[in-house]
Amino acid sequence: MVVKVRQPTLPITELEQSAFCRTDDDLSTQPLEEELKAGVRWQKIPEDYYPLSAAQLDERIKAAREKLGRRLVILGHHYQRDEIIKYADLRGDSFNLAQYAAAHSESEYIVFCGVHFMAETADILSRPHQKVILPNMMAGCSMADMAPTEDVYDCWEELSELTTGHGGIVPLTYMNSTAAIKALCGRNNGLVCTSSNAAAAMRWAFERAQRVIFFPDEHLGRNTGLKLGLDLNDMVVWNPFKHLGGHTPERLRQAKLILWQGRCSVHTRFTVKQIQQARAKYTDVKVVVHPECLMETVKAADYNGSTEYIIKIVRDAPAGSKWAIGTEINLVNRVAHENPDKTVICLDPVVCPCATMYRIHPAYLAWALEGLVEGEVVNQVSVDEETSRDARVALERMLQLV
Ligand code: SF4
Asked: In angstroms, what is the span from residue 345 Cα to ligand 1's centroid?
């Protein structure tokens, strides 16, 4: 076996993650030239968009949208800012949105206000005549960036070699990964999961082999493994910068769940201390967090689940109930706004939007739509046919889960 050792590198999106954090809670949209001062990477667009106010952009977006009519569908992920969500024909999590786009084949243009891997999934599931557009190509995902395709392919090669004849291994990837990683799962009897069906997907995988490799979120993988009754000793973390992920062949063969070392910079901010503080401040508060949070945080919370789960549990709760939520701030603010009969707070007192989602400023949406009106498709996200075919296999296996 060739020994492969990589130099540790942090994805730039990870380094930029705190760029928009603030202690006041004013997340209202400023002209792009103001927001550019945050010092993160932005895609360059024509300079006349830079000074436009939110109100001016609003008019231009509305006008372009009207001209495009049913040829256009705008999708908004839950973590987008309000000034983007208000234009969305549908808001949801990444997979709901991709499915919705595929079901609306009359729309020639799918403008995906989310991050890059989501636009890729929409392209994989959409029809050949549909074009998927990501308004700002710098809207990546720091978690997905922690699993570069080449590193994942090396890891898979090493693990397959080690486990063949020793109970095998199934690759399972979270939706937050490149199309090429989804394709690897499709080609190797594996599948994709979302945070809503991670437990069912992992159970499916364990029915087919003695062990599972979970990409790219260590925390969702560990929290899901614990839910299925695994012990922490059954799990190892694969460090892509070390030979064999930092383990001996014996330890890897002994492990049931191998967790890729990746994380969400937004959800790992939530701590047990914040939960204790919320409980001290609000009597009878219920705490609900996303399963991308640290294991300790998930254990200290009352509930954990996907964005859709969080929205539903608060919506269905009795009036007067109190909720402390550990997920992205734009979603928490919206849940608070839509449930005025309840007290809804974010666990983290520092307001820290997902810096990659936040890059979809209305100026980018205006630019993308006005381009379409002029017949120019900007920022198309397109996955090659072979990768799409194999990734679709992994997505379809997920859809067949009960
Ligand atoms: S919230 Fe976390 S996982 Fe979601 S897009 Fe942002 S960095 Fe990626």
From this structure: 20
Is residue 291 a contact partner of residue 224, using CB atoms and an 8 Å limit? yes
CA distance 66 to 75: 16
Does domain 267-346 fall under CATH 3.40.50.10800? My reply is yes
* Shortest-distance atom of ligand 1 to CA 17: 7
Q: Regarding the domain delimited by 144-265, which CATH topology (the fold level of the hierarchy) does it fall under?
A: Rossmann fold (3.40.50)
Given the structure tokens 């520092």, which residue do they identify? 350
Summarize pLDDT for 274-286 with one digit per residue, the tens. 999 999 999 999 9
The CATH fold assigned to 28-140+357-384 is Rossmann fold (3.40.50)
Ligand 1 binding pocket includes 143 (Cβ within 6 Å): yes
Over residues 341-379, the pLDDT tens digits come to 999 999 998 878 898 999 999 999 999 999 999 999 999
Tell the residue nearest (CA) to atom 6 of ligand 1. 354
Whether residue 350 contacts residue 22, with contact meaning beta carbons closer than 8 Å, is answered with: yes
Q: Which of 10, 79, 121, 289 has the most ligand 1 atoms within 8 A of CB, as the residue to mutate?
A: 79
